[in-house]
Amino acid sequence: MSCGKNFDSGSCVIDILKDIVDAQNDVMHDCTTSCEQSIADLLGDTGNGGSNFDTVPVILYCKDCKPFKGFGSRRGGDDCEVRGSFFFRVKSVDDDGCAILELLFSDDRRGRGDDEEGGRGRGSGHHHRNNPTDPADQDCDDLRASGICITVDLNCFCHVTCLPAAQTL
Per the record, which residues fall in region Disordered (predicted)? Predict the structure, then answer.
């Protein structure tokens, strides 16, 4: 049974993520679930006209029901800092269920993670920017694309949570 709008691969996670990629690509080129609402907000289907949103941020859950945290690094000069995130932008999904995900962060430094609190979030002292231990450790306001991408097998996941549509690019 498909839970996606336009796809029926036999996997709800794959179908929803394919719908998100289609919606994001549409924007880039010219009681509902959180994913349906976020897709509608992205496309401007909520009666507000067009939107400035370009991303439906997602959290994926492994088959053991734990949130998936992806890790990656982007070189900048001589630095190579590994960062972790629970929040992703779906870049693509192929027919075999492999996806390219971009790690999202809530700082303006796009993958750096050091701010005026020395790498901690907004003065609260518990948002670990470089290595959060839980999705609640990350701030989902002002998410930004990082340029850090990973490849995952979507068949390894059993649940997807969509955050509100955002402008990340």
Answer: 111-136
Whole-number Å distance between alpha carbons of 129 and 32: 31
Token pair in block for residue 121: 């979030």
The residue whose two tokens read 């750096």 is: 112
- Rounded CA-CA distance 138/146 in Å is 14
Residues 6+ away with beta carbon under 8 Å from 62: 68, 156, 157, 158
Query: Residue 133: CB partners within 8 Å, gap ≥ 6?
Result: none
pLDDT digits (tens, 9 = 90+) for 50-92: 678 999 999 999 999 999 999 998 777 677 788 899 999 999 9
**pTM to 2 decimal places:** 0.72
**For residue 136, what are the contacts with CB-CB under 8 A and spacing of at least 6?**
none
- Joined together, the tokens standing for residue 33 give 């679930």
